[in-house]
């Protein structure tokens, strides 16, 4: 679900919110077959009754490459901004304020961003958001490199970055979902997510060394440059004539229309509600409890970093699996793959040794990608192209809205019940909610059509 990330989805467990086919699909970005028909005109270049235009796969290649560029920088920038706060004399509270300053506008403006992206050409919204992110990160970098930035300045710039992301994510997901067509869409989404996950792993791995070697200010500058490069790349995305969607009912009318589309599908809102809680408790377990358990019982940051790296390897393995596997019942297979997400939480609760924790992370990473690719394929198949960004916005909103709450309550829950009990409770909540979603008939029955 929104699990990917232009710097986070991810899908966040989620991004921000991104399966298989014939062997030629692995190189279909460069050499698409011409026998795939389209069901509706799409922003990526699908024309009714004919094969995909050349720009359809050109768009997909540009979208994937630009996402790789920005994710490398943004994965490191999250850590660099924390060290910038600390080096300026701040503490953990200051780090939390800057992180919250980025999250709050992301939640507040997501729905507006989705409505706007369904009115305007999506690639223009993406470019505008990238420019805003570039300027905010460049200003952040300049403050850090030239002196001692005040906490309010860093929080304000982080808020600008979060605002940019709120407008970018719905437009990007709508653009990606409409950039491919036919039976190879699932494989294309898997390749897209593999690119984003690989760049996220590389960005996170390089960040610590770069912060130590050149300082957080230069890492933020690299992130700003990445947004500038991505904006330039996305400016070359092509939209076929006649696909602009000028709204006639006003912004509020568009939001109401998107809401009706959202609530009319039980499988859609059921899974979004599920993940609003799943993301919150899993993020709390991994962001708050994981480092504490590692420090007290596993030997510190190194084994925890190893476990997170293995999770990244699992996401790549899951993406590779979904380039080959086409489950017929998309959401049933995807929802079953959510259950392994509790394995790392259970391993932490049981104080399992590092090899067991790493194995749990590996399986969880595979599960995340199986779900995410199945989810993207279902959205691509079932949601009208002209409403994709609004639906993506509601999806993202549900996925991130409770995450700050879960993180904030993690400490008090551990104090009240003990860390082990809080972890067992988090795992139980995920299992219960995921089991409840499987009761929804549409989740069990929604079938792949291509």
Automatic annotation (TrEMBL):
Transmembrane in keyword set: yes
Coiled coil: none
Pfam families xref list: MFS_1
Key words, A-Z: Cell membrane, Membrane, Transmembrane, Transmembrane helix
Record keyword Membrane present: yes
Record-annotated membrane-spanning stretches: 60-86, 92-113, 125-144, 189-212, 267-292, 304-323, 330-351, 357-379, 391-410, 416-440
Main location: membrane
Subcellular location: Cell membrane
Single GO MF annotation: transmembrane transporter activity
InterPro entries in UniProt: MFS, MFS_trans_sf
Membrane topology, from the record: Multi-pass membrane protein
Region described as Disordered: 1-49
Gene Ontology CC entries for this record: plasma membrane
Name recorded for this polypeptide: Transmembrane efflux protein
């Amino acid at each position: 679900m929104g699990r990917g990330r232009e710097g986070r989805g991810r899908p966040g467990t989620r991004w921000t919110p991104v399966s298989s086919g014939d062997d030629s699909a692995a190189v279909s970005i460069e050499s698409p077959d011409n026998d795939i028909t389209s069901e509706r005109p799409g922003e990526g270049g699908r024309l009714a009754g004919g094969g995909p235009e050349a720009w359809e796969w050109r768009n997909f290649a540009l979208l994937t490459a630009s996402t790789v560029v920005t994710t490398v920088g943004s994965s490191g920038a999250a850590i660099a901004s924390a060290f910038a706060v600390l080096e300026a004399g701040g503490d953990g509270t200051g780090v939390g304020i800057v992180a919250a300053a980025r999250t709050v506008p992301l939640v507040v403006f997501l729905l507006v961003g989705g409505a706007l992206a369904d009115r305007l050409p999506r690639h223009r919204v993406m470019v505008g958001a990238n420019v805003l992110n570039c300027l905010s990160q460049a200003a952040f970098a300049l403050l850090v490199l030239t002196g001692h930035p005040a906490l309010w300045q860093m929080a304000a710039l982080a808020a600008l970055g979060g605002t940019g992301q709120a407008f970018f994510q719905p437009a990007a997901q709508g653009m990606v979902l409409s950039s491919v067509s036919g039976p190879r869409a699932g494989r294309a989404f898997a390749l897209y997510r593999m690119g984003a996950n690989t760049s996220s792993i590389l960005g996170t791995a390089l960040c610590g060394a770069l912060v130590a070697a050149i300082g957080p200010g230069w890492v933020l500058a690299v992130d700003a440059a990445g947004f500038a490069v991505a904006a330039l790349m996305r400016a070359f995305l092509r939209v076929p004539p006649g696909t602009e969607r000028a709204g006639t009912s006003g912004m509020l009318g568009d939001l109401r229309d998107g809401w009706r589309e959202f609530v009319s599908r039980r499988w859609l809102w059921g899974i979004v509600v599920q993940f609003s809680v799943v993301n919150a408790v899993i993020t709390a377990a991994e962001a708050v409890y994981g480092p504490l358990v590692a420090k007290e019982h596993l030997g510190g940051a190194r084994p925890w970093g190893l476990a997170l790296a293995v999770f990244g390897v699992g996401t790549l393995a899951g993406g590779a699996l979904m380039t080959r596997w086409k489950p017929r019942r998309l959401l049933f297979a995807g929802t079953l793959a959510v259950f392994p997400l509790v394995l790392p939480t259970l391993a932490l609760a049981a104080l399992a040794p590092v090899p067991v924790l790493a194995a749990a992370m590996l399986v969880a990473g595979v599960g995340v990608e199986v779900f995410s690719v199945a989810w993207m394929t279902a959205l691509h198949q079932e949601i009208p192209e002209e409403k994709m960004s609004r639906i993506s916005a509601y999806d993202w909103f549900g996925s991130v809205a409770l995450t700050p709450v879960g993180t904030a309550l993690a400490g008090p829950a551990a104090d009240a019940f003990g860390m082990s009990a809080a972890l067992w409770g988090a795992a139980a909540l995920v299992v219960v909610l995921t089991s409840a979603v499987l009761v929804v008939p549409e989740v069990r029955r929604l079938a792949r059509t291509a």
